[in-house]
Model the fold of this input.
Amino acid sequence: MARKDFLDIVSLDRAEITHLLDQAVPFKDLFTRSVKKVPALKGKTVLMLFYEPSTRTLSSFEVAAKRLSADVTIFDVPRSSVSKGESVRDTIDTLQAMRADYIVVRHRLAGQPAAIARQTNASVINAGDGAHAHPTQALLDAFTFREVYPEMEGRKVVIMGDILHSRVARSTSTIFEKLGVEVAFCGPGSLVPQTRFRRFTNYDEAMKWGPDAIYLLRVQKERQDAPFFPSDREYHSVFGITEERLKRISDKGVYVMHPGPINRGVELCDGVLDYERCLISQQVENGIAARMAVLFGLKPKVS
Ligand code: CP
Done:
């Protein structure tokens, strides 16, 4: 049975994930056609409710919904009555009265999209909640990795950087694990918690493990109340992809991924963006197809 909401990766099984990835393929094929739209969600309304900033996720959901012919409204949180103290619950009651079919939510509090999903008949999609989950990012990451490695089983990915504060690390490691990809975390000891995944606190040891891709993360200073390492320069020299490390990565044919936004001179040098196995732009493009698949696959309750 189709789900009402899309809140995390943990609750999806491998068959559901594979179905979504397969569904995204024909949607991506649309991008090279002269008419890039299909009427699948004609007459439906998609509402974007972003309480935190976003470039990629917000614009990609907007494009995805429009390519499915939905009507899209972007709720302008800073200029809304939220600034007058309106609660999330009251905002959702108001939006429910407008009968949106889909609500795409980003919020700094873990669990807020799930709470909204319990309150509304609309299908709720988690576009990132605190350090908890970012399931559509995970889906586009898996889709991108599968494009370069159609047989994902047994491949290895090292996720490098600020694991502790990263919702992307949680969702993307989980989706890879469910698809049979081996995952390791690497970064400063202060930012890599003990989990079920292999853990490295030394860049060279992580590379000796033989990853097929390095998945870089931004250091999320906005979620840290004290510095977790001495300086950006220090971080770059110990864990960043420097020009010298890029050369070795290139010699081994290792792919580089990153969810964005990037911090040049911290987790990567400029040269990474020109590296032929850098998948960052491909991830952004695939975000539209993956989000089309999610929107297409959900079933809002009739209100
Ligand atoms: N990857 C990601 O979530 O980027 P945005 O914050 O720009 O949406």
About this structure: DSSP finds ten helices and nine strands in the chain. The chain has two domains: 14-133+285-297, 135-283. The longest strand covers residues 123-129.
